[in-house]
Amino acid sequence: MITLENVTKTYKNSTVALRDANVEIAKGEFVFLVGASGSGKSTFIRLLNKEETPEQGHIYVAGKDIGGLSSWKIPYLRRNIGCIFQDFKLLPTKTVFENVAFALEVIGRPRSVIESQVPAILDLVGLGHKSDSFPTELSGGEQQRVSVARAFVNRPLILLADEPTGNLDPATSVGIMKLLDRINKTGTTVVMATHDRGIVDTMRRRVIEIDRGSIVRDQARGVYE
Amino acid sequence: MPVKFDYLVRETTSNLGRNVTITLASIMTVAVSLAVVGASLMLRSGVENATKRWQGGIEFVVFLRIDATQQQIESLQNDLDQSPEVSKIVFVDQQQAYSEFKTLFADSPELIDSVTAEDLPPSFRIEPVNKDVDAVESLGLTFEGRSGVDQVVFASKTIRLIQQLSSRLTVGIFVIAAFLLGAAGLLILNTIRMAMFARRREIEVMKLVGATNWFIRVPFMLEGLIQGLIGAFVAIGALAAFKPFFQQWLPSAQDIPLVGGFQVSGGEMTVIFITLGIVGIAIGAIGAGIAVSRFLDV
Ligand SMILES: Nc1ncnc2c1ncn2[C@@H]1O[C@H](COP(=O)(O)OP(=O)(O)O)[C@@H](O)[C@H]1O
Ligand SMILES: [Mg+2]
């Protein structure tokens, strides 16, 4: 599903954020990216949906080399990839329903699809009853559920999560992890950057550790360190 | 993927509503600059119409009698053709005189109805080799009193002055209008840029979930276009309202002998209005286009 071949990413200020990375992630896998702050986890994630482009190497997503992807095709790549973030990125002027519907609307899905899919996904994340609330009226955990719903409503092949529990307390984090686990069980490949030791150690999934841009460990059913 | 209509309407109107003051400022600038352009085009048309028979170096006109015979006309034509002092002759028959009359007085159908081609004299419009005032006059007067000739009419200094003034004024006004239009374009660019800044979160999410570049751009392009178009409509409305005063304020055909009225026909007004509409849309599209390609980064 995802392949990195000798990928190196250097930012303009000559920071090497990722150095000669070789990774193969199969369909349906659940992968943790761990490492200290600034080690290159977010860069790894941003390379996968082509928010960043590598200096060297090739990246294959769903069988396609995304390096040569022309800019007008990038949106179509991103329709196969859901993203969630530490800061949720919800639109404060839209309700829960509208936030999720927005993701379908802007890729041209018809009204009828929106009206059936959005309530279904909100039920899945356990927020069917908060459909008309605004993000500011929700707790952090609920907001993250909305953002998971938005990322998953289009049934992407891949879900990228960049420190999704970074702003949440441990109990709430567990709920979000259960949700991601459920999504993973539907066959969706999940790549999650985190430095939450507790989560990694309980889940016992594949762990890729990055240290100052280099992949130093790739362990099946791994632990934080 | 076609961009959905209700989405466009919603996004564009909410964009326009978000920055009411700056949107109004750009619309007003477009309107003022287009009104200036339109007014100068009207002035130019008016002067052109008023001095139609004096264009292209024509210095005097030999009006024939309405009852002039074909022989009289031909003999005069021969003499003119052979005269070494005449460089160009334009014969205007009754039918041509009538159609000119119709465009000049398009706004007064009663007048057109009361006149037929037979009421208007045919004429020769003459460009002499020597443009010196005395030479022109002595040449022209040789046709005065000839059989079949009613009268000889000379281009006055006033007419030359009006033509000169109008062409210089038009150039000057266009230079000013170009600056105003540039300012209008920059204002629209800035409005769109602010609208994009106000919606940067939406734009970020759109990119993330895979909205196409055009889907993201179109509402902003449309916003600029609509600002230009509204500005053009305001300018057109103002000019249409101002036109009767324009006609009154300029001298009428009766006030200045030898020229037609400073009329601008309905057809000419339509052309001017369409021009303004196109320029308005173009300014909006250019301003928004630059904003979208420079600052949207999609
Ligand atoms: N846009 C950028 N421009 C320049 N340097 C960057 C940029 N983004 C990240 N970096 C640098 O790249 C390195 C890796 O950053 P990042 O991928 O965000 O790490 P992590 O997510 O693990 O904290 C850091 O040194 C960071 O300062
Ligand atoms: Mg990070």
From TrEMBL, chain A:
Keywords: ATP-binding, Cell cycle, Cell division, Cell membrane, Membrane, Nucleotide-binding. It is found in: Cell membrane. One of its GO terms (cellular component) is plasma membrane. GO terms for biological process: cell division. Residues 2-225 form the ABC transporter domain. It is a peripheral membrane protein. One of its GO terms (molecular function) is ATP hydrolysis activity. Belongs to the ABC transporter superfamily. This is Cell division ATP-binding protein FtsE.
